[in-house]
Structure formats: structure tokens, C-alpha cells
Amino acid sequence: MFGQDFLKKAQEMQEKIARMQQDIAxxxxxxSAGGRLVTVEMNGNNEVLSVRIAPxxxxxxEVSMIEDLVVAATNDxxxxxxxxxxxxxxxxxxxxxxxxxxxxxxxxx
Length: 109
Hints:
Elements: H1 4-26, E1 28-33, E2 38-43, E3 48-53, H2 55-60, H3 63-93
Antiparallel strand pairs: 1-2, 2-3
């Protein structure tokens, strides 16, 4: 039913997906809020690597305002991971990154 050509193409697609996963996992993005007073660095697996809060923000703002900026910066980083992952997918497969692909196990998609 399935010929050798089909199996070869399936294996090639599996290899492309594995490379995409590796490329995405290695990338880092920085989200920010409050004019970059708060920045969040995140990897392609949506793991937060660092949070930076400008010292002047700590002197002048209430804790709730700082918390809101951390949330906003984190959400900004998550969106950037999604966008970058979509670009990697489109470059490697030719499939537009906004096309629903189901669960391919690709972080950020």
C-alpha cells in the first residue's frame, strides 16, 4: 500500500520536525514592558531564563505595578517565541506558521 517513496518522505518530514524542535529550543527572546524597565528572557521551550527589573522602578513604584509589568513582559516574551517558532517552521517546511498543524510537539505552536 505504501511504497518506499512514501516511507522516505515520511522519514524526511520527521527529520525536519526534529531539526525544527532543536532550532526552536535553542532560540532565546526578550520580552519587555514599561519601556524596558522590566525584561524577561525566555527560551524556545517557553522557559523563563531571567527577569530583570530596573533599579529605578523599585524605588518609585508599588509592588502591584511591578508585578503587572513582570506579567506583561512575560506575555510579550511568549508571543515572541510563538512568532519566532512560526518563522522557523515556515522556513523549514514552506508551510505558513499560522496554519493549524495539530500537535506536532513543536514548542510555541
